[in-house]
Amino acid sequence: MIYTSGGPVILMLVRAVVFLVLFLSPQLMAEVISGTVKRASTGQAVVDVRVVIAGTTGPSPYVAWTSSSGAYQATVPPGEYRVYTYDADFEELLNQVYAGRHCVQAAMCTWDETQQGQIVKVVAGNNVSGIDFSLLDQPTISGTVRLSDGSPLPGRITVEIKDSENHFTQTDANGAYSEKLPPGSYSVRVNPGQGYNGVAYPNTPCPTYPCSGGTPVQVTTAPVSGIDLVLQVTTARIQGTIRDRKGKPFSGIQVAPVDGFGQFGVGTTTDAAGRYTLRGLGAGRIYVRALDELHGQPNVDCKYRYCSVQGATPFDLTAGSTTTVDMQLHSERSVFTGRVSKWAVGGPGVKLDELWAFDDRNGYHVTWDQELKLKSNADGTYSLSFISRENAFYLRAYAAGVGSSMYPNVPADCGWALRCFSVDAKVVEAGVRSGIDIVLDPHGVISGVVTDALTGERIAGVAVHIAQNGNGVDSTTTDANGKYRWIKADGSYQVYVPQTNAYVGQVFLGLDCIGDCDSRVGKVVTALPGQERTSIDFRLSPFNEHGRITGRVVDDKTGEGLANVLVRAWSSRFSGTALTDARGYYANESLPADDYRVTAEIGSYFTSVYGGAQCAETIGCAVEGGALLRVIASNTMSGIDFRLIRVHATTVTPSTGPATGGTWITIAGSNFAPGSKVRVGGVEAQLVSVNPKVIVAVTPPGSPGAADVTVSVSATQSATILNGFTYLPGSSRRRTSRH
């Protein structure tokens, strides 16, 4: 026996062994439970289903997933377990507790169901295999939905199968339906409103939505069939003939039922004889709409506004009834046919890209919602059909690369403007008209390449704009090789690329532009019909967000730099400020690309506008008179220098006069301005005349002795001659005129 001062070591060893036996041995002696999960109906493996191995006592359950072969395995310590599947409902299967007991819940087995499963014992040293599952398909509810005479219903009828949730299925062409569901209690019904009465199994009438009543259908693990429903027809129908304004049958016209709120129901289209039938209408009041009119006496017009049923004829329908509703509309279908050619009638045929019809009363063009259909062929023959209420139309034809003309042969290149007319154009009367031949004069072409000014690389996807006298005409886009080609030219244009987030804009020829480009400053490009102007190219500078303006501010007389001068940059949208350093240099940084005017100001100097005026007062200074400086982002505009002036007063002549005042004095200096004031000894003198270098004034009365003479051109700008005038005692003769 070994002893230490802390007690016997053997006791510590015994305790360690007991701990290992009691607590670690289950983990050290873990075994494997394995098996397969297959579909009972086919024997195929069921993939990605969880298998739960839950101990009858002890820790949380162990979980395994089935593989692609349906096999699973889990490592567990010795003990007693119940094993069951989980979430097999995703495969429309019933979960199962080993061995062979199926669960009726959809997603998982209940606690009570798992407790009825067979216990699987795992003994140390022995793996347990063959814990297999054969899962049943979820049971089905099936049946038929037929009419009272036993015939199947046409179309697909929705059957609702309801427990705590709503399940929906539809009948096939024979009226049969089938739906997989987990075991439970279900109400089976068809709600009213599909043209038939509502009914709940077993054929309990339910006239209101949602359908209720009937006897629930109990579903266990076996399929339930024969859940049949019999419906009664509750629908009515409306039939009739639609005619155009000339009384002819109107084919291809949309006819629809409308409820009291103006909402459309399921409609139909008139046949070649103008006939239509609206089927499956529920009992109640409806209105009939054909094209853009509601039936009435007269019809209610729905052309230019929301269609209210006020004034329209109501029709009260009953189950199984047939009502005849004929209508004559204000519209008719026009069909124009002819040939489009170059140069002259009979010239080479042209396939059209567009052919617009404009009514001769308002100039509105016919749109696609008026059933506008154009068929144009390579030989120049065409057919245009549309529906309209108007009596006559102008036609405007367009073919890419050729041109645009009003019928019969009036050039009409109006860019984006659709309403484009000429007094020489002729109208075409509504109706079926043939021989409507149109002549196109080929357009000119403007083409070029757009490149990056720094790299020389060609730029794809750039919008190139065409303008005339500052007004936009059209635009085109560069292709993958940076090339563009505008094929609608017929005169003189300006061409430009607007500024983008990536590049500075440019007006041809080579004029960069920031913000809105003024195309009028560009070089005129002329392309007449049949001509192509090439090499209308652009070299775009990359756009960076900011640029800067730099320069120096000095004293106008000494040329020395002035410190702490405030330099402002102004544009219509932005502004920036900077202060000069000790040597007079400044840098106005981070200016967004734009056109700026720049000013420099400091209290003892005139405010200076670069390229403009020198102002004695900052407030009211005409900044607009200054030069516009174009800042291009990422670039520096340097050399924006200022020479600041201030008022100077150098001499007073004469320099003496009587204390009674009245002496005419001449003050010499520089930068005097209209509105200047003169003070002698602090008392304002009478001003006689002012020019930039000389002021003449009359001294006020003063006290004998020396007095300062101050010239002020503004509240902040002044110059003083110390002791510049001396008042003499006594009563000298007063000067009354200037000598």
Descriptive notes:
With 739 residues, the chain is mainly beta. The chain has 7 domains: 25-135, Immunoglobulins (Immunoglobulin-like, Sandwich), CATH 2.60.40.10; 140-231, Carboxypeptidase-like, regulatory domain (Immunoglobulin-like, Sandwich); 236-328, Immunoglobulin-like, CATH 2.60.40; 332-440, Immunoglobulin-like; 444-540, Immunoglobulin-like; 546-644, Immunoglobulins (Immunoglobulin-like), CATH 2.60.40.10; 648-728, Immunoglobulins (Immunoglobulin-like, Sandwich). Helices cover 3% and strands 44% of the residues. The protein is built from 2 helices and 67 strands. Strands 11, 12, 14, 15, 16 and 17 form a 6-stranded antiparallel β-sheet that branches. Strands 20, 21, 23, 24, 25 and 26 form a 6-stranded antiparallel β-sheet that branches. A hairpin with a 5-residue loop joins strand 53 (594-601) and strand 54 (607-609). The longest helix has 20 residues, at 9-28. The chain starts with 8 loop residues before the first helix and ends in an 11-residue tail after the last strand. The model is unreliable at 1-14, 16-28 and 732-739 (pLDDT under 50).
Notable traits:
single chain, 739 residues, Immunoglobulin-like, 7 domains, six-stranded antiparallel β-sheet, 3% helix, disordered C terminus
Total domains: 7
| Mean pLDDT over the residues | 86
* Approximate helicity band: under 10%
Which CATH C-level class of the largest domain is it?
Answer: Mainly Beta
Span of the ends, CA to CA? 142 Å
- Just name the CATH architecture of the largest domain: Sandwich
CATH topology of the largest domain: Immunoglobulin-like
